[in-house]
Specification:
This protein has helices spanning 10-16, 34-39, 44-51, 92-96, 113-125, and strands at 19-24, 27-33, 101-103, 108-110. With 127 residues, it is of the alpha+beta class. It has a four-stranded antiparallel sheet with strand order 1-2-4-3.
Length: 127
Amino acid sequence: MSLLIITHDLGVVARLCQRVMVMYAGQLVETGPVNQVFHSPQHPYTRALLESRRSLNRPSNEPLIALEGNPPRMQEKKIGCAFAPRCPSAMQICAKKAPPYEHSLQGSVHCWLPEAKQRKATLEVVP
């Protein structure tokens, strides 16, 4: 038996779910086991979601971190990554071309950033 829970309450996800699918602007951006996604998020939106929640590690009077900008208008056709205008790690390609899914045994991420990191690491190794 399966149960699909749609929520913005990450505490509910942490308590009840084994796997999580993170969406932004109606598109899947990251999937994986809850522990893996919560402790090692690969997509900048997932990281922003996790940073915006209350935590026992943070003083209660410390303001929550909020994303800059506004969500995209859903009725407008978007080229590239829908999160690019709000993403602190956005690159030029993000605004021009939709990112591919990067699959692994642990999950998947729909972002140019992991590919860029991998490409950079490969370039640094080659003399």
